[in-house]
Amino acid sequence: MAIIADYQEEEEKPSSTSTYNATLDHSNPLEFLRAAFRFVSRETDFFKREAAEKEVAVLAREIREEERKKKAAERELEEKGKAEKRLKESREEHEKKSEKAKEKVEDLKMDDAKAEEKKEGTLVPNNGNGLDLEKYSWTQTLQEVTVSVPVPPGTKSRFIACDIKKNHLKVGLKGQPPIIDGELSKPIRPDDCFWSLEDQKSVSILLTKHNQMEWWKSLVKGDPEIDTQKVEPENSKLSDLDPETRQTVEKMMFDQRQKSMGLPTSDEMQKQEILKKFMAESSRDGLFQGKDFVNRCQLASSL
User: Fold this and answer.
1) Which of 58, 108, 195, 299 is in Cβ range 3.0-4.6 Å of 205 for a Cys bridge?
2) pTM check: above 0.70
3) What is the pLDDT of residues 213-223, one digit of tens each?
């Protein structure tokens, strides 16, 4: 019986928790708090303590501080997002301006190049040191000229008409007006020339130059001319030349670069050096005076 009595006493102990149900009216939150405080007062002795009012005030400040920090964190996050967005937009704007600036520079370069070409009456060579024209294109080395003439796909070699002479080239399709028909700008060696049909869509013509120490300005006379000072021979080709020819080609390349920069050529530099040496020796030895000295200098400068 004692055991049963103890069990009944334990069951009769009051619970340490209570349930509170209430509805929050957002327009009147104080009424909700008043009801909550009444419930606490009714269920506990919290408000009987002297520090109750102070503890409630501390709790209110803590909640307000938590809310302030929460709002600050949200604002910081929002500002960070805005800053990142502005940075991204700024970068994109900068990239757009840079791209436009690059395009502007390229346009100006092209305009300058076109103006220079128009002024000089010559064109910049293509990558093969020749020129790309509407009906054909051509490239060159010091020894050879290669011409490429497009024809309708599927063309057979028997329909090609190609006549290669020392000073004249005529190319086209039989029964049709020739695509190229004109006097070559320089003589060639006909016996060392040939043509072939490439993939049934292009006629390739190899012309061997008669003078293999000069650059052609055009394929046939009357066609647009290139600026031979802007020709860039391949270094690998130079190694194939004999020493004497290679020396001559390198001299030509040096003179072309000097002319393009407005500087004296190798021959002009040599003349200047001779004149300078002559004048120095004549002045030191007193060999020539007055008019005789001037005449001697003029004679040296004309060498």
Assistant:
1) 195
2) no
3) 889 999 999 99
